[in-house]
Amino acid sequence: MVGEPQPGRSPALNTAEEPDGSEEPTPSSHKSARKRHPAVSFLIELVIIVGLAVVISFVVKTFFLRAFYIPSESMEPTLEVDDRIVVNLLAPDVMDIDRGDVVVFEDTRNWWGSGETPETTAFQDAMMFIGLMPDTSSHYVVKRVVGMEGDTVECCTEEGEILVNGEPVQEPYVHPGNAPSEPEFEVTVPEDHIWLLGDHRSASADSRAHVDEPDQGAVPVDDVIGRTLVTVWPLERISGGGSNNEPFEDVPEPQ
Length: 255
Description:
Membrane topology: Single-pass type II membrane protein
Strand content: 15-25%
CATH class of the largest domain: Mainly Beta
Number of domains: 2
CATH architecture of the largest domain: Ribbon
GO cellular component, one term: plasma membrane
Radius of gyration: 33 Å
Subcellular location: Cell membrane; Membrane
Protein name: Signal peptidase I
Oligomer: single chain
Helix content: 10-25%
Order of helices and strands: HHHEEEHEEEEEEEEE
């Protein structure tokens, strides 16, 4: 009968034959056709890795940690020029700051931020924005907290020590050869403010330079970006962030 398979030949083999001799592609040939070139796979993986790194860095920089560059001598010897530091952004909103902490704050009143900012390229600006490079902006300042709200800070005892709420404070971090302060002062820190000094007292235009202003040189807590966590560069200077609360342990609370 026309269309019936010939004796001795299976229907499957009979229907697989084509007049031009072509064959149906096997499953293995389909798989090899779909296989990506190694270079394409590498590029896709690289894009994914870089994208994840950017997202993670941005989240970390926004909520947890941020890198900064030290441009001046005002915090020597704790922090030196060209040091790169990492700042804990959880302070002061989630974690408290206290006397002796080294903090970075935004210079909203342009007290110390009028200096020159190092020139950067568009690529460097982008890297700083996502947190992969330290911020070199002059709009941020690093100093040490000496007085909290309500504290009375004054200079100085006969031995040359600063007093906080009447208690003399021995400051081991002050730059060798510097007095705790040359100008005399007495201030009471306003509510929701902190009062700050640089460790290199003779090279630091800190709160002392603004004691005649309404806030007596104090900085709003809202301007604080965070507390220094660690110095990460240069390698030989890797260390903690410089905070030292021990000298203030005996300071009484303000009355």
